[in-house]
């Protein structure tokens, strides 16, 4: 007769001792017996060592002699199947791995796309195939067959009728699809073995074989799947004896425990198995045994009782004074990194006492993902060896990325983003390749070339067929080949710059050979062979081996990753060929999808933790009970307890309804609701995992910088052990939030660890002491002296305490060589000599670097932040090119279009105000076509990328709007255009034959000078009292406004400099015209809401394009510029007119008299001279301006270089404190001859 016995007890009891006592008796009683100790697979290896050690300790033999036990096997269910079935023919059948099952599911989904309408929006979602495969394997483990569908639906109808409910249509649709796929899934498995079939074979074996001398002991199982339960029932029915240990406070023979009972899951297993034994003939249930040996210390036994009472929500928790105040501890930390640092330091301190080894520690948390990125670095700093118990997915390994990118390059025809994704994996390196200059392409050369090529492709929009073109790439795509042939030096520079581009291009175009093999593949087997051959021939296997060897020197686990990923890839190909290799028709896209679906489920194999390491794991993973100390970290209210619904294809209500429609022997794994009910038990097992000590911790701030609160478990336990201050609502004797300079040795002790780890804390403490102007306390002073003696890097690190975010000015002679160029007069003389066929003389050294050539915007950058000017124009550091139509390119297009539009009017003798809509459209399109011809790279970009094509259309619409606005504005003004795109300071003629204005040249100190060049968008003229008044118009894509303070300070030099250029040219030409002012025109295509339209669309467009700037406050002038003044409603200028004759400037507009304008122009010249002087003096100060809520850091591309902290670097701001009233006052005084700094 078979027997069943339970060994019961709480987590504080030693269940294993009871099981081994049973085993010892049965070993002695049955010499022929075979003994199987079954545990979850996760702890099989560690349990085997522990069981054999304990058996050895109870054996009557010399303890120094080796111990062997042939009759005892420590196995998991899967290893039990292997042990018993390994020689049976059925077990030798080919089997599919979990990744192969995922691939099989993906194939079924592809074949049944039309029937998958319920999940049509999900099919292409990453993770869907994996979730569907998990759902199918859940049905298998629940012992549900595809043929059960009809019975399930019939029971569902009965359930709905009995409960007076209507069955959910969505639930029925989901189940129909899932069972359709499930049926195909089981059919496709055919003769292949999977886990469920192996379980079925095991059950059949147990039912048929003579197990009269077999004894089974089950430990550490709190719940079983339906398949596992079937195996356990077969053991109970057929084995001589089955002994099961459960963490359970008492037997539940006749009824289930309450659902809220802490031990509900264990009680349910007891009830099921006891009921099975009672109903099965030939099985006798023996009397239960209560484990009578404590596994933990007396203090943790008290904790066990407290946790049980806490789960029952008793008002008074049992408590007793702790025998050791250190056995149960609590602390909080500012954040997760600080929490890990304190844990690592504590472990190192305990190990240093000699009473502990690293393997005595277990660190648990509910979920490790919040700590994943910091574990390795923190524990490495403390020199604490760790074993991360969490399984990791392979889907981010470079080999997986390479295969994914390789197929995307094929599918999307060499899209540059896919090509770069492929090359950046680092696994594809040319072998024996030379560039156009004959240089060998090394790994380092190629990797650098890849990034250079990516930048170049982004800049010039190269993609698709460009990679396959027979034409060589040139670093400057617009270079004239004929010009290169006549200039050898230029040709050589082009070859050196272009060689890396063509190396990458040639390598990528070589992929076409592999893609041709794929196209010619008749079936999946041929495609798999081609893919495997490509990777081997491309050196991928060799590269993976190199990585493995490099990693093996420091990290054995990581060294195995390349080999594991390659093996998974080979297995995937094998399984694909076995299942689908000969299937017709063969589709490459499906082949790629199936491979990626397989990788989606692949995980790295974990090496069992056998070294002296600290194990880090999650509370949901079963653990051995041999650890002495447990750290429960991350004990926050958001995860302890965790409130999380089921994830997957079936929701919690879906699963509950399905469970209600199953037979008694069928049941799904726990739903999200059931898991939430089991949360207390999971945490209970976690808290009780250690033998001697428990330390619970919680961070106060999460990784997203949001505050976290302590878990109710943590607070209740702190209250039970008198560690909670109810008035202050915080822990008593909590660890300090951070180390402080005056800490005593006791307070500082939690931060003491390895020299490297302490060094960072010590520097923080010293910085705090310096900031607070206080000396270090004795404890930190002692550590400082000790570190100075022991740590080589101490002095170097300590220098950081004196660090200030300040730059060093350039020596004046270096600044001169960096910024200064040839004197313009000397350059003119040299140019003239060359034109006359004469040999030019040498330029004197004093004239070689005496002139700063600059645009106005460059000097504005200086006033925004001198250091940015140095980076941008001194070191010439540029932002990386992006796949965009940059502001520079779009701005050039706008200016070219509007310039060409105005010139076409002049060439064709047309008046702007008289243009018909058709004429306007024709001229606008001609102008835009010409503008695009000036930037062929824009056309290249927009032809290759639809997103940029859309952006191009936006640019065109904006120009169309602006030409219409210009026409409508011309009907409301007497001003006429004089010239557009007028250059000044440019030494040659444009293609229009338009003479450049003279440069603005201002003398500086020490014989230096500044030479200003630029381009004025438009100059308009209006006649007033038979005297012309000229205005500058500047087109701006942003809503630029004239700000008197910025103009006076130097932050807005541009408009006034244009006026100075215009004034200077008038003097040179001896013209009598006057300067009327300067205006901004906002280039925009505004969007209006219907309800906001107060007038016609045309009038609203005019309002949105009012000019802003600075003008002379002359009523007649303003009337001529904007005829809307006639009825006191200006429509062009951003002004307001009153019937009493007053005019008021709106935001962004300034009205000045002639003396004030002259003072502004003089101030503009002074600011230019000042900026140039400071640049030549070597000023590189990090002094961003700050005005109102704006500063020189906004929109800067160099913030990563600045390392500017707005809080710590307050003194480094250059605050502009002037108001507009101050500026008006200064201008008035300056116009009267007074000078101000």
UniProtKB/TrEMBL annotation:
Identify the residues that the record assigns to the PD-(D/E)XK endonuclease-like domain, covering every copy: 854-1185
- Give one GO term, molecular function aspect: exonuclease activity
Keyword field: ATP-binding, DNA damage, DNA repair, DNA-binding, Exonuclease, Helicase, Hydrolase, Nuclease, Nucleotide-binding
Keyword Cell membrane found: no
Q: Which GO terms describe its biological process?
A: DNA recombination; DNA repair
Keyword flag Zinc: no
Residues in ATP-dependent helicase/deoxyribonuclease subunit B N-terminal domain copies: 6-297
* Pfam families in the cross-refs: ADDB_N, PDDEXK_1
PANTHER family the UniProt entry points to? RECBCD ENZYME SUBUNIT RECC (PTHR30591:SF1)
User: What is the protein name stated in its UniProt record?
Assistant: Uncharacterized protein
């Amino acid at each position: 007769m078979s027997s069943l016995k339970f060994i019961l007890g709480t987590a504080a009891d030693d269940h294993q001792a009871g099981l081994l006592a049973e085993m010892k008796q049965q070993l002695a009683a049955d010499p022929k017996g075979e003994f199987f100790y079954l545990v979850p697979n996760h702890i099989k290896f560690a349990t085997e060592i522990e069981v054999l050690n304990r058996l050895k300790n109870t054996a009557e033999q010399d303890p120094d002699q080796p111990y062997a036990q042939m009759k005892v096997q420590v196995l998991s269910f899967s290893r039990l199947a292997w042990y018993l079935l390994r020689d049976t023919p059925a077990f030798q059948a080919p089997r599919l791995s979990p990744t192969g099952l995922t691939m099989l599911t993906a194939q079924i989904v592809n074949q049944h796309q039309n029937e998958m309408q319920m999940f049509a929006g999900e099919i292409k979602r990453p993770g869907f195939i994996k979730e569907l495969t998990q759902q199918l394997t859940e049905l298998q483990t629940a012992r549900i067959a595809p043929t059960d569908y009809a019975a399930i639906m019939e029971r569902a109808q009965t359930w709905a009728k009995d409960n007076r409910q209507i069955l959910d249509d969505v639930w029925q649709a989901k189940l129909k699809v899932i069972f359709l796929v499930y049926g195909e899934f089981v059919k496709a498995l055919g003769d292949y073995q999977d886990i469920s079939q192996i379980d079925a074979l095991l059950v059949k074996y147990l039912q048929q074989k003579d197990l009269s001398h077999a004894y089974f002991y089950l430990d550490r199982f709190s719940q079983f799947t339906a398949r596992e339960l079937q195996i356990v029932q077969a053991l109970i029915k057929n084995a001589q004896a089955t002994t099961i240990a459960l963490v359970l406070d008492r037997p539940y023979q006749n009824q289930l425990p309450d659902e809220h009972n802490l031990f509900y899951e264990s009680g349910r297993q007891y009830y099921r198995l006891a009921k099975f034994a009672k109903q099965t003939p030939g099985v006798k249930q023996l009397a239960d045994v209560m484990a009578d040996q404590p596994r933990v210390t007396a203090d943790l036994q008290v904790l066990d009782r407290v946790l049980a009472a806490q789960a029952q929500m008793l008002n008074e928790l049992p408590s007793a004074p702790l025998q050791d105040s250190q056995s149960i501890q609590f602390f909080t930390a500012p954040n997760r990194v600080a929490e890990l640092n304190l844990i690592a330091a504590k472990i190192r301190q305990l190990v240093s006492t000699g009473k502990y080894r690293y393997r005595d520690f277990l660190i648990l948390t509910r979920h490790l993902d919040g700590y994943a990125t910091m574990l390795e670095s923190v524990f490495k700093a403390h020199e604490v060896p760790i074993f991360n118990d969490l399984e990791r997915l392979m889907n981010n390994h470079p080999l997986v990325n390479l295969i994914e990118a390789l197929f995307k390059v094929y599918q999307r025809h060499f899209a540059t983003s896919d090509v770069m994704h492929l090359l950046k994996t680092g696994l594809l390196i040319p072998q024996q390749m030379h560039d156009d200059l004959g240089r060998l392409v090394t790994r380092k050369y190629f990797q650098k070339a890849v990034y250079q090529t990516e930048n170049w492709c982004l800049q010039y929009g190269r993609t698709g067929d460009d990679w396959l073109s027979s034409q060589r790439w040139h670093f400057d795509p617009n270079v004239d080949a004929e010009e290169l042939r006549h200039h050898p030096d230029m040709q050589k520079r082009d070859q050196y710059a272009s060689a890396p581009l063509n190396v990458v291009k040639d390598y990528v175009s070589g992929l076409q050979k592999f893609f041709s093999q794929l196209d010619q593949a008749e079936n999946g087997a041929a495609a798999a062979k081609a893919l495997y051959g490509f990777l081997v021939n491309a050196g991928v296997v060799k590269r993976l081996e190199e990585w493995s060897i490099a990693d093996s020197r420091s990290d054995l686990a990581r060294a195995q990753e390349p080999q594991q990923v390659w093996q998974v890839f080979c297995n995937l190909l094998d399984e694909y060929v076995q299942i689908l290799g000969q299937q017709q028709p063969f589709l490459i896209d499906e082949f790629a999808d199936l491979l990626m679906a397989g990788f989606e489920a692949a995980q790295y194999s974990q090496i069992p933790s056998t070294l002296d390491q600290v194990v880090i794991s999650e509370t949901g993973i079963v653990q051995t009970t041999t650890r002495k100390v447990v750290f429960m970290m991350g004990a926050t209210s958001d995860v302890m307890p965790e409130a999380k619904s089921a994830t997957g294809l079936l929701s919690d209500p879906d699963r509950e309804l399905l469970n209600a429609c199953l037979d008694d022997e069928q049941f799904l794994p726990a739903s999200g609701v059931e898991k939430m009910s089991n949360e207390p038990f999971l945490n209970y097992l976690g808290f009780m995992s250690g033998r001697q000590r428990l330390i619970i911790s919680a961070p106060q701030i999460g990784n997203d910088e949001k505050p976290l609160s302590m878990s109710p478990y943590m607070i209740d336990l702190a209250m039970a052990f008198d560690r909670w201050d109810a008035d202050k609502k915080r822990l008593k004797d909590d660890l300090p939030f951070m180390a402080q300079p005056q800490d005593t040795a006791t307070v500082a002790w939690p931060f003491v660890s390895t020299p490297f780890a302490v060094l960072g804390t010590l520097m923080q403490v010293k910085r705090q002491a310096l900031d607070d102007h206080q000396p270090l306390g004795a404890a930190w002073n002692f550590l400082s002296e000790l570190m100075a003696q022991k740590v080589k890097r101490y002095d170097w690190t300590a220098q950081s305490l004196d660090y200030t975010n300040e730059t060093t000015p350039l020596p004046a002679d270096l600044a001169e060589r960096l910024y200064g160029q040839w004197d313009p007069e000397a350059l003119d003389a040299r140019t003239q000599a060359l034109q006359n066929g004469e040999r030019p003389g040498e330029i004197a050294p004093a004239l070689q670097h005496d002139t700063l050539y600059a645009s106005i915007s460059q000097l504005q950058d200086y006033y925004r932040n001198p250091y940015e000017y140095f980076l941008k124009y001194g070191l010439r550091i540029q932002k990386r090119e992006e796949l965009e139509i940059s502001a520079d390119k779009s701005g050039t297009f706008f200016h070219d279009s509007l310039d060409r539009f105005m010139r076409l009017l002049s060439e064709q003798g047309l008046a702007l105000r008289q243009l018909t809509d058709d004429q306007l459209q024709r001229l606008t399109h001609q102008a835009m076509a010409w503008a695009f011809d000036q930037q062929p790279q824009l056309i290249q970009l927009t032809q290759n990328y639809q997103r940029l094509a859309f952006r191009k259309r936006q640019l065109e619409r904006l120009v169309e709007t602006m030409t219409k606005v210009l026409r409508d504005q011309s009907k409301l003004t007497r001003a006429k255009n004089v010239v557009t795109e007028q250059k000044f300071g440019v030494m040659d003629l444009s293609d229009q034959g338009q003479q450049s204005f003279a440069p603005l040249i201002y003398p500086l100190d020490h014989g230096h000078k500044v030479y200003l060049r630029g381009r004025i968008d438009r100059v308009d003229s209006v006649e007033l009292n038979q005297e012309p008044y000229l205005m500058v118009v500047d087109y701006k894509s942003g809503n630029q406004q004239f700000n008197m303070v910025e103009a006076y300070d130097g932050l807005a030099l541009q408009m006034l400099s244009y006026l100075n250029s215009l004034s200077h040219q008038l003097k040179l030409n001896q013209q009598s015209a006057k300067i009327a002012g300067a205006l901004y025109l906002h280039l925009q295509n505004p969007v209006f809401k219907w309800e906001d339209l107060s007038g016609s669309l045309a009038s609203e467009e005019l309002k949105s394009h009012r000019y802003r700037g600075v003008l002379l406050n002359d009523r007649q002038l303003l009337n001529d510029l904007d005829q809307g003044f006639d009825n006191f409603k200006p429509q062009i200028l951003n002004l307001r007119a009153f019937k009493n004759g007053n005019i008021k400037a709106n935001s962004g507009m300034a009205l000045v008299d002639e003396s004030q304008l002259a003072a502004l122009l003089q101030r503009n010249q002074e600011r230019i001279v000042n900026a140039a002087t400071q640049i030549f003096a070597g000023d590189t100060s990090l002094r961003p301006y700050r005005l109102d809520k704006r500063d020189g850091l906004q929109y800067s591309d160099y913030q990563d270089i600045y390392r500017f902290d707005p809080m710590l670097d307050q003194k480094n701001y250059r605050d502009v404190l002037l108001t507009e009233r101050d500026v008006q006052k200064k201008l008035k005084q300056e116009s009267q001859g007074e000078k101000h700094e």
